[in-house]
What we know:
The structure holds two protein chains of two kinds.
Chain A: H1 2-11, H2 19-30, H3 38-45, H4 49-56, E1 70-75, H5 78-82, H6 85-96, E2 102-103, E3 109-114, E4 126-128, E5 131-133, H7 138-149, E6 180-182, H8 195-200, H9 205-215, H10 227-236, E7 243-248, H11 257-264, H12 266-280, E8 284-289, H13 297-309, E9 326-331, H14 341-348, E10 372-376, H15 377-389, H16 391-395, E11 405-412, E12 418-423, H17 428-434, E13 442-447, E14 453-455, E15 474-479, H18 484-499, H19 505-522, H20 528-539, H21 547-551, H22 554-568, H23 583-594
Parallel strand pairs in A: 1-3, 6-12, 7-8, 7-10, 8-9, 11-15
Antiparallel strand pairs in A: 1-4, 2-3, 4-5, 11-12, 13-14, 13-15
Helix pairs in contact in A: 1-3, 3-4, 6-7, 9-10, 9-12, 12-15, 18-19, 18-22, 19-20, 20-22
Chain B: E1 4-9, E2 12-17, H1 22-28, E3 52-55, E4 58-61, E5 72-74, H2 78-94, H3 109-116, E6 133-134, E7 140-143, H4 152-156, E8 166-169, E9 176-179, H5 181-186, H6 189-198, E10 204-206, H7 219-222, H8 227-230
Parallel strand pairs in B: 1-5
Antiparallel strand pairs in B: 1-2, 3-4, 3-5, 6-7, 7-10, 8-9
Amino acid sequence: MKASIENILRKYQHDSTRLMDILLDIQDELGYIPEAYVPHIAELLGLSDADVEQTLSFYHFFSTRPTGKYRIYLNNSVVAYMMGRSEVAAAFEEALGIKFGQVTPDGRVGLFETSCIGMNDQEPAAIINNVIFPCLTPFRVREIVRDIKENKPVEEMINYQYGEGQNASEMVRSMVSNNIRKVGPVLDPHYKVGEALKKVISMSPEEVIEEIKKSNIRGRGGAGFPTGLKWEFCRKAHGEKKYIFCNADEGEPGTFKDRVILTELPRLLLEGMIIAGYAVGATEGILYVRYEYRYLKKYLEEILENARKKNYLGKSILGKEGFDFDIRIQFGAGAYVCGEESALIESAEGKRGEPRDRPPFPVEKGYLGMPTVVNNVETFCSVVKIILNGGEWYKSFGTEQSTGTKLLSISGDCRYPGVYEVAWGFSVNDILDMVGASKNQVQAVQVGGPSGSLIEPDEFNRILGYEDLSTGGSLIIFGHHRDLIREVVLNFTNFFIDESCGSCSTCRIVPVLLRNKIEKILNARGVEKDLDEMLEWAKLLKASRCGLGQTAGNPVVTSIKNFRHLYERMIQKNKEYDAGFDLQAAIRDGAEATGRIPIV
Amino acid sequence: MAEIVRVYIDGKECLAQNGEYLLQAARENGIYIPTLCHYEGVKPKGSCRICTCKVNGRLMTACTTPIAEGMVVENNTAEINEMRKAIIELFFVEGNHFCPTCEKSGDCELQALAYKYQITAPRYPFLFPTKRVVAEYSRIIIDHNRCVLCKRCVRAIKDAEGRSFFAYRRRGQHIEVILDKRMSEQMDYEKALEAEKVCPVGAIMARRIAFTTPVGHRKYDKKPIGSDVEKIK
Ligand SMILES: Cc1cc2nc3c(=O)[nH]c(=O)nc-3n(C[C@H](O)[C@H](O)[C@H](O)COP(=O)(O)O)c2cc1C
Ligand code: SF4
Ligand code: SF4
Ligand code: FES
């Protein structure tokens, strides 16, 4: 045991800020991280045992108990359920003879749930030992379990076709499909690697930033901060070293477009990061990829290696004296909140993914206290096209306030789920036509994932853009046959409960209270007052530190606003108060045990 | 010398050093902003959210927000006070707080805040969580029923090398404070008392000693929380 830990620690030069990588390596090797290792890891890194434990216990893919030789993580997102997850889950439980959260008695197979894994266009999907199994059916589950019982390596359990494009390549070999349905300037497959970079090194860093500013591009990760301005702040900030982070955490349920870029256009993304490095004067880039996309690890590492060989990375890039830049990949370990930029940085420093208090912002004090730019995958890719074609050209797409194009991840009740690149300014109606969802069958659309809004048909003429429906690009379509409160609002609220970092009182507690209220209503014990209370209580969330807590009430709030009639249908009309529980049932056991009959 | 800037708190012009936290600036000007997770001299971590103010129209925590020239702050307004009261109530339903049996009663900041905001019963249903009382350490007892997850112990109680005795385990509603097992063996009596003092509630209690100050003579028995700040004027 000691020898293997020491090897791993040596690989990371006993650097405590690399704790995530160290734990990931141990977990990869053993399938879990034995508690007995903790003191040893702590000692070699100069940390306390509790320091190691607090990182370790934060991320849901780390486990301190054996999780089996085969570790099955079945997605529990809304769309997974819509596509038959319940039957698939039952099939797993039946074939394995265990429940979720358990490991088979022989210790070989573990069955777990996990939040959205970025496969909404091919649900239900599971991750088994880092391999993605999309489009599961009960039949397919029984095949998988049979293979497991025969001790087949997971890589050989891929008994049907690989996905299209790079999914089928030597380094990926994945069953995941891209489902690229509409291509625009960013997804343009005719992209020539390095062209933009060659252009950039003939410009001054200030000119690069100027061009980006001219394009008016705003961040594609959801918050929509102007990219040029962010780079300028970072360029002007003082620091011995500067860093460029690419946020490929993609954890918002319903979003999967970054997965497609990582698969098909990783070089475009890297080029964008290198350009950012040049513009702000950074020497190191970190590509933070969510754990769920670990099946792309070898592939991405090889691409980085090739980029170094071609001198796109390394010293004096493309012969430009003094232009040094390299990139490393940082994997997460399961925590949606790590997509928040300061939590992302904390996590890359080997810590818990707790967002920081701001100010200071990452551009002033980010990774290791140094000025840091954090941008979304798509933002970096768009930047390359802006450099190639100019800011003016970019502005020819989209609207006045929302320039350029946006990659949308569309899933749910429609004929063609997948990734669409459209110019900003598309209406929801246009989108429904585009994806083959007939409007009279659509009950609601969730725009922007759980943190966005659930909108109703009367609002389908609204447009996507920072001026109206601002979105990181996820749209989930719900047909009339869906029970919006039970299947959607409850699921999303539970998602926020599971994924809160727990730091803020409001974000830790209010969603639990809301969830209990929704359940009360679903149990037919709700009254009118419950709805008003939910709206009132949700307001408190606005006092939370980060976007997760601030938006955690949105599923409840937007559904009550737009679909109040669905709640009204379930609540008791001529009753003002209901405690929400059955007193008789609550005291039954006690009454029986004592042999006393209550007078109530 | 640091630059002096002007900020407006509830319309009152206040002078303070640029870059200072809003909480400090307010206190120096005799304005009380309630806090729970804040601990004098320790790096802030805005986690209780009680010090939330409206700064230039946006909700911000006073303990973590540096002031800047011309900042307009809403602090003692009906809206903000109502929000603070609601947040304090959240703590009461999240944990299990039986003040009459708690050694910290009268010295407890949460209890004192509840009095200050005239809370009789929380508006939320109690969650009645099952929490542990951990008595496995030689110097202290941790009663998780009372912990408000302010992280003060984690941030303040350190050894000579700057390592924290305490840490967080897990996340979200399952988050829990832990004491490092091995370091707990080196924890001396003074450290234990220090930890007890740092804890705003009765979640950390030093062993061997209890009820040194009789009820009725404790910190908040005579004067409400915040009165030390408000009287400066
Ligand atoms: C809870 C939470 C999760 C987030 N997840 C992501 C994410 O997965 N990817 C992303 O690019 N941005 C995410 N963001 C936004 C980031 O904080 C940040 O604004 C973004 O990465 C900046 O890049 P951009 O300006 O290019 O959009 C998240 C924010 C919050 C509050
Ligand atoms: S809002 Fe929620 S996720 Fe964000 S810092 Fe606070 S507790 Fe953590
Ligand atoms: S034990 Fe006390 S000091 Fe530590 S987090 Fe809990 S309430 Fe705060
Ligand atoms: S005192 Fe400021 S957030 Fe707790």
